[in-house]
Amino acid sequence: MIIYILRRLGATLIVMGLVGLMVFVLLHLAPGDPAAVIAGDNATPEQIAQLRQMLGLDDPLPVQFLRWMGDVVQGDLGVSIYSNEPVAQLIMQRMEATVSLAIATLAFAVPIAIAFGVIAAHRAGTTVDRILMLFSVMGFSLPAFVLGYMLSWLFAIEWKLLPVQGFTPISEGIWPWARNLILPSVTLGMTYTALIARITRTSMLEVLSEDFIRTARAKGVAVPRILVKHALRNAGVPIATVIGIGIALLIGGVVVTETVFNIPGVGRLVVDAIARRDYPVIQGVILVFSGIYVFVNLATDLSYTLIDPRIRY
Amino acid sequence: MTKPVLSVRDLTTSFRPDIYSPWTPVVRNIGFDVAAGETLAIVGESGSGKSVTSLSVMRLLPPRGSRIEGEIRLAGRDLLALPEQEMRKVRGGDIAMIFQEPMTSLNPMMTVGEQIAEAIRGHLSIGSAEARQETIRLFEKVRLPNAKERYDVYPHKLSGGQRQRVMIAMALATRPKLLIADEPTTALDVTIQGQILDLVKELQEETGMAVLFITHDMGVVAEVADRTLVMLRGDVVEDGPTAEIFGNGRHPYTRALLAAVPRLGSMAGRALPSTFGLIDTATGSRGAEREAAPPVADKPAVLEVKNLTTRFAVRSGLFSKVTGAVHAVENVSFSLQPGETLSLVGESGCGKSTTGRTILRLTKPFSGTVLVNGQEVGATDREALKSARRAVQMVFQDPFASLNPRIPIGASIAEPFLEQKLGGKAEARDKTAALMHRVGLLPTMMSRLPHEFSGGQRQRICIARALMLDPKVIIADEAVSALDVSIKAQVCNLLMELQESLGLAYLFISHDMAVVERVSHRVAVMYLGEIVEIGPRSAVFEAPQHSYTKKLMAAVPVPDPSRRRMRRNTEVEEIKSPFRIPGFVPPKSVYKEVSKDHFVQVRC
Question: What range(s) does the ABC transmembrane type-1 domain occupy (chain A) (predicted)?
Answer without folding.
Answer: 95-304
